[in-house]
Amino acid sequence: MKLAAVDIGSNAIRMQITSVSQYEGKINFKKVEYLRFPLRLGLDVFNNQKISDINRRKFIKLMKAFKILIDLYEVDDYMACATSAMRESINGKEIALEVKEEIGLKINIIDGNREAELINISLNKFFDEKTYIHIDVGGGSTELNLYKEREKVASKSFQIGSVRSLEDKVATPVWASMDKFIEKHLQNEPNVTSIGTGGNINKIFELTQPRKNKRYLDLSKIDEVLAHLGILTFEERVNKLNLNHDRADVIIPAGKIYQHVMKAAKSKKMIVPDLGLKDGIIQLLYEKNKAKKPL
């Protein structure tokens, strides 16, 4: 079985094609194709409320390329989800309809709660009886999910993201609202473990040069990385640290969001599982199709 996930974010657009097979009673998920294209839709939307004509044309070309790959790989099922930028854009629905009519690729414009639900599907194995705060920072929004004794007890999406922060488009009351949400649900919780998802926290994790097989980050390490990044110029981040151009400018504002949430939650440690929306979509598609197409 082959499944495809398309994640249309505010800073970049990703597609992953995964092959699912069964061997000795175990289900195996193997990534056979992964593409990330740096199309920053959020820059248009957070400044001008709509996707520009030039980025609209690029987006449609990219969706054509993705659809060709989906067909070439003979994918059994796919799901394309658009998040903050397209759901806030006044022409987002219009562009999604154009893609469906011209290319035959259906785009689901999802809200923050649905985005969080899909991401959480891939994270279930990390939860136990302890208290966790899942932090997912995108280009346009941050989703927070709180878990106690394996149950999700609260969830909320905030209009705070890396691109939005870079463009100084985060309203001050939103930060206060986030802090109140955390305080309300985590008061008197002495040991909260964070789970961080998103491209920027994965890159921060890589920059700490972690030990093999260790997927944990201490808050102090995040502080160190952000301090180091802060003294480097944009060009130094690109050339010395080998960061992509569209990562080098947003990694600090994104990192500060994770940092802010962890400090508000009094969390000292973060799990960085290298999972995200695309992984949740793949898992959802597998559950949907496993009865129809036995492995």
Automatic annotation (TrEMBL):
Pfam families, alphabetized: Ppx-GppA
Gene3D superfamilies hit by this protein: 3.30.420.40, Exopolyphosphatase. Domain 2
Q: Which GO terms describe its molecular function?
A: pyrophosphatase activity
Taxonomy of origin reads: Bacteria, Pseudomonadati, Bacteroidota, Cytophagia, Cytophagales
Highest taxon listed in the record's lineage: Bacteria
From the record, give the transmembrane residue ranges. none
* Alphabetical list of CDD domains matching this protein: ASKHA_NBD_PPX_GppA (cd24006)
The protein here is known as: Exopolyphosphatase / guanosine-5'-triphosphate,3'-diphosphate pyrophosphatase
- Ppx/GppA phosphatase N-terminal domain segment(s): 29-282
